Amino acid sequence: MLRTYAPVGETPILHHTLSRDHLSVIGAVSLHEKLYFQVHEAAISSAEVIRFLDHLRHHIPGKLLIVWDGAMIHRSKAIRQYLRDGAIFATGRPNGSTSSVSPAMPRRSIPKRVSGGI
Known about the structure:
Blueprint: E1 24-29, E2 35-40, H1 46-59, E3 64-68, H2 77-83, E4 88-92
Parallel strand pairs: 3-4
Antiparallel strand pairs: 1-2
């Protein structure tokens, strides 16, 4: 049994003031043990995602596999149009997955240490 501060027989409700004051981070890890990331003081827009993907394409040769969550920004019209050129393959995490590592990617292929950056 768990103790709460709600009156007996009532569901506890937590009130929290939400604000848009936060930092947003977009990042990637290469198979060559490099970490690429950008930090923004506001929510990241589709244009900023596209600039980041362009940056990755400039620094990482060949095709890119992007694994991201189901955030609405990843499904925007601008992002879908950008991905149609074929240089980047994007996929989402499996439903219910809490791991940032895709089951299709063996854990042994993840670098043990991350160095570098942008």
